[in-house]
Specification:
Shape: globular
Strand content: 5-15%
Radius of gyration: 27 Å
Largest sheet: 7 strands, antiparallel
Length: 780
């Protein structure tokens, strides 16, 4: 079962990829040992055929060889669909978990609370159930799966793990399966070998892992992955997940307290998110000729093609069956469905070769884990389909970059969506509850816009913000005219009742098309943090990011706002009066206009709204007095953890830029300069300028290494990136423009960006290496 493939092993060359057309018929799953190794091939889609047990499964204990015969692999329908039985079979939760837990007398309800981790006997039974489930899916190993800091853009999957076999070996040479509570609950690793900002060292290296009971285990390949949190021997957070957990607890604690004071019973709050993931897909053979895409994820040089996105022809256009992109996206969805990741939508985005997936929303801790998995699956599946997936925020100059919209909301454990005014009013009858909640959020945006900007300061995001493709680096919020007017009247003391969002009727102007009901407010895609009727959408997030820090900030600033209100209510003030005062003071961060207006950033500064143009400057704000006070008072991060996290983020930025500088130098010396010298159209002066540029880049890289501190190095890196490197790029692009195509050894933008025009699928799928030989895939 575990050897089943969607797209088979990656070929040696993009031009040799074997793919079936979109109308290909049923094929049997690939099984190890079924055919000679070199002849092993399978078509790209699978019909619901159940494989016979492999030799590995036949060797399992008799009590588990027949269980889950219709498990996750081999039952998926073609073209990305899944039957109901196979969806989520590779994740240990719900009905899937219940089937195994009940064997050991464990009620499935215990998994809904993290308290089981404190009961060793119960944890042993749960571990046994997980072991049986994982083995039935073909797993032979387990791993605690955690998220080190400083992973974006460099670490595959942005996670870390040690894969440990579940086989136990006896002295007599026999083996048995073994996985108990000790294996499940905790782990240990070297904390000093991960980015840690000085919290760990070689002589104080202890790092410890604890199972995350909120995020369920999953099976991928032959490994059962157990989501885990990662802390130092001192208890300090070494990962992205632990502060997120702390912020969720703060939001739940302070939110429940405030609701109780307002007469609403809640056992707790949960922060929910839904993440829209944008990517680029490019031909893999072209990718292999680009050291910049391979090493740093973006093109450091490249002449703009004659065609870009100016006709808006790529956005939402039909996904063609004539190239690998559609089948790749179908395969990605199929893999995610097995893992219970509800990728609901797929479509083309604005730029050529740009695409997007979007899931349903859920608990921010689980959704963050799932998004990391989605990014990993995207990269791995693309490779199997002869493509390369680019997750960088700006892989190509001159066309849109990629983001990851973070749709954030919060609700009670009982299901009351606190940002949904209609539901709040209907379920509680409390006209003040929604404006009080909004006061806490608006206060947070106004006071902690610097932290919001910090949270999106991935190294690639500076290329996007304010570039007519993403909101500017001004942290305002859009509420819409109707809600803004309501809150202003509420703050002024007018009797406005509960907020009821209006609806408008939209006619089509013909009798055959029935008018439709739409929100009274239009959409504002230029705001970094617009309200959308039942959620806020943080539109400025970068596509490559782990969104833990983003949601840690949103949760923490809102929790503090709720605490401030609750403290004052407990002291005798009315919730309405407190909310009115906060709205009057902080509504200045609300901006319903055009965020792309070039005059807006300066006006925002005049109004006292946070504007931080560079990610480096935003990162420095993490250790300001007010921000340390926020995190410490909410129990999310200590001052030492804030300082360490700032250092990791600055080192991460500088390290990536240094790689870019050295990669650009190599590309000049190994590709651009030789092409120039071989071309009659390149003069001696151009060759000398290119050689001089390469030497200059070496000197700049040395300056970064010799900087006295991480803050100075990061500032130098930013200046280099948007100064000298841009000038060098212009020179290289001018050279490319003058060199004949046959002399240019780097894939061009024309070759990278237009799958539909320059690649095709085979009509028939080869099934052996002999059929594969000489088979073209790519440029006809």
């Amino acid at each position: 079962l575990r050897s089943h493939r969607i797209c088979c092993a990656p070929p040696a060359s993009f031009h040799q990829v074997a793919m079936a057309s979109a109308v290909s018929v049923t094929r049997a799953p690939c099984l190890r040992g079924a055919v000679p190794a070199r002849a092993r091939r399978c078509r790209p889609r699978a019909i619901a055929e159940v494989p016979q047990p492999s030799q590995a499964r036949q060797a399992m204990p008799p009590d588990r060889t027949t269980q889950s015969a219709k498990a996750v692999v081999g039952t998926m329908r073609p073209y990305g669909g899944a039957d109901l039985e196979s969806y989520g079979r590779a994740v240990f939760r719900g009905a899937v978990a219940a089937e195994y837990l009940q064997r050991y007398g464990v009620s499935p309800k215990v998994m809904s609370s993290p308290e089981w981790t404190g009961d060793e006997d119960l944890a042993n039974n749960i571990a046994s159930a997980m072991r049986d489930w994982a083995i039935d899916l073909g797993a032979t190993s387990y791993a605690h799966w955690f998220q080190p800091m400083g992973a974006g853009g460099v670490r595959h999957g942005q996670a870390a793990c040690v894969q440990t076999s579940m086989l136990s070996f006896a002295p007599d040479g026999t083996a048995s399966w073994e996985f108990d509570a000790d294996d499940l609950l905790t782990g240990e690793t070297d904390g000093s070998s991960y980015p840690n900002g000085g919290m760990r060292a070689t002589h104080t290296a202890g790092g410890y892992l604890a199972v995350d009971p909120i995020s369920p285990p999953f099976v991928l390949g032959d490994v059962m992955f157990i989501p885990a949190a990662f802390i130092a021997y001192t208890g300090q957070a070494l990962d992205e997940k632990t502060p997120l957990h702390r912020s969720c607890e703060a939001l739940s604690r302070e939110g429940s307290r405030l609701l109780s004071l307002m007469g609403v019973t809640a056992t707790g709050l949960v922060a929910n998110i839904g993440l829209e993931q944008e990517i680029f897909l490019v031909p893999r053979d072209a990718y292999y000729t680009r050291p910049d895409l391979q090493f740093v994820g973006r093109t450091l040089l490249g002449k703009a093609p004659a065609r870009g996105q100016e006709m808006s022809d790529h956005y939402m256009a039909p996904l063609t069956s004539s190239t690998a992109a559609l089948q790749c996206m179908q395969a990605i969805q199929e893999e995610c469905f097995k893992l219970g990741i509800p990728l609901k939508t797929r479509h083309r985005e604005v730029a050529p070769n740009q695409y997007e997936f979007a899931p349903l929303y859920g608990d921010c801790r689980v959704q963050t884990d799932q998004n990391l998995l989605v990014m990993q699956i995207i990269e791995e599946t693309a490779a199997k389909c002869g493509l390369a997936a680019l997750l960088h925020e700006k892989p190509f100059a001159g066309v849109n970059g990629s983001g990851k919209h973070d749709n954030w909301s919060f609700a009670t454990n009982e299901g009351l969506q606190l940002l949904n005014p209609k539901q709040v009013l209907k379920m509680t009858g409390n006209e003040d509850l929604f404006p009080v909640v909004m006061a806490a959020v608006v206060r947070g945006v106004d006071m902690y816009g610097d932290l919001m900007r910090l949270a999106i300061a991935s190294p690639g995001n500076d290329f996007r913000l304010g570039a007519m493709e993403a909101p500017p680096a001004v942290m305002s919020t859009y509420l819409g005219e109707s809600l803004t007017e309501y809150l202003e009247k509420y703050a002024a003391g007018e009797e406005v009742g509960g907020y009821a969002p209006a609806k408008a009727e939209l006619p089509f102007g013909v009798k055959s098309l029935h008018p439709m009901q739409i929100p009274a407010e239009d959409r504002n895609r230029t705001s970094p943090f617009p309200y959308g009727g039942n959620r806020f959408e943080f539109r400025a997030a970068g596509s490559s990011q782990n969104v833990s820090m983003i949601n840690t900030v949103l949760n923490t600033m809102t929790a503090e706002g709720m605490k401030v209100i609750a403290d004052r209510v407990e002291a005798g003030e009315e919730p309405r009066a407190v909310a009115q005062e906060l709205l009057k003071k902080h509504m200045k961060c609300v901006f319903n206009g055009d965020g792309y207006d070039p005059t807006w950033p300066d006006k925002a500064v005049e109004q006292g709204i946070w504007r931080i143009d560079t990610g480096v400057d935003a990162i420095a704000e993490l250790t300001s007095d007010k921000n340390i006070e926020l995190f410490e008072s909410m129990g999310v991060l200590s001052a030492e953890e804030c300082e360490a996290r700032k250092q990791v983020m600055l080192e991460h930025y500088t390290g990536l830029v240094e790689m870019e500088v050295l990669c650009l130098k190599d590309m000049i010396l190994q590709h651009v300069l030789p092409a120039c010298n071989a071309s009659n159209s390149c003069d001696k002066e151009t060759s000398e300028r290119l050689a001089s540029a390469a030497n200059m880049l070496v000197e700049k890289a040395l300056e970064l290494e010799e900087a006295p501190d991480v803050q100075t190095a990061a500032k130098l890196a930013h200046a280099l990136r948007f100064g000298s490197m841009e000038h060098v790029r212009t020179l290289c692009d001018e050279t490319e423009n003058s060199v004949k195509n046959e002399l240019w050894t780097l894939a061009t933008y024309k070759e990278l960006l237009f799958l539909d025009s320059h690649t095709h699928l085979l009509k028939e799928m080869p099934t052996s290496d002999s059929e594969m030989s000489g088979t073209p895939y790519g440029t006809p």
